[in-house]
Specification:
single chain; about 425 residues; two-stranded parallel sheet
Length: about 425
Amino acid sequence: MNKPLADRIRPTELSQVVGQKHLLSPDKALYNMIENGDIPNLIFYGPSGVGKTTVASIIANKTKRALRKLNGTSASTKDIKEIVAELDTFSAPNGILLYLDEIQYFNKRQQQTLLEYIENGKITLIASTTENPYFYVYSAILSRSTVFEFKQIESKDIVPAVERAFEFLQNEQGIAIEYEQGVCERIANGCGGDVRKAMNSVENCVLATPVTNSKKTITLDIAGELTQKSAMRYDRDGDEHYDIISAFQKSMRGSDPDAALHYLARLLEAGDLPSACRRLLVTACEDVGLAYPQIIPIVKAAVDSALMLGLPEARIPLADAVILVATSPKSNSGEAAIDAALADVRSGKIGPIPRQLQNKHYDGEDAAVKGQHYLYPHAFENHWVEQQYLPDKIKNARYYTYGENKNEQTHKEYWQRIKDKNK
């Protein structure tokens, strides 16, 4: 069985690598390390299909060390020990270059096994990960490695690679391959910055197109059919998931309905209805809050409707709610108030509940003052009377500060008027 096109067409020189100019331009540190052939331990961090494995392969070709490859999803401690056993043998006289893909799946013990050999220089480690290495890679390995972040590749940079892939397949198959105007751009736009996906789409387009008049003509319809949804780069347990839901919430908080709808669309296209609903609800409470308190039951109703309808119809009530949250006045006074109260409770600032608020109506013989003496607010003008509610220890504490929005300022003026009148 043939290897995937992405492997058959993999670049062998840095100049052929798509994108990553911030790392691979001639004036950049990584480029010069590779060209000089003096390679330290490296960690490549970034999304899939952006050139991490390709660059590691180029490095392997430029070094005289024996190349060994492991994948964190399937390798074991035994595999590491077998590689270590090759050191100082005829099969690895100059040491070993170990390419460890998906290092985040190696547990701490497996990563520790590598440390001794990384330190003495007999193994040069090039590890790659799609997750933030500062969260997933053992700190001792991080301290002995240089981290380089690979970026998602822009569509315009992928177009030449798509064109080269069609030319490669034409030469490989010995048959003319043509494509309608816009096909390369459609594939490049639909791969979500993942060159491997783009290569797979090119190969699938060629395989799905029949020979007509001694040639294959790739149509926009075929390209669209075989690249649909591939632009979604999404993993519910990975960084991209948290980046999208973070951007979704921050866009609503920042009152940008267009950006909020964009991130909602990405969540829904990935089928992640629960995350969209949860973040929408919390943003209504946290970021709109008391500036427009009626929004909370409105958003809850929209979320309930969405969950009852399911996709694709769920997009409609959610879009309404997202636009409402994004365009509503904002206040986080409620969140700030409860956080301040929690801080006092957690630091031990509590004290006994004032007698007039306790749920008992008798006093022991040792009570200095007999009787509860609770003042029932509804028995007074404007349903308010001054009395102490907080414990003595923090009786002057203030947690809530009225927001500057119209709603909270109206409430502030109302209570100031009543309380001033009763002084």
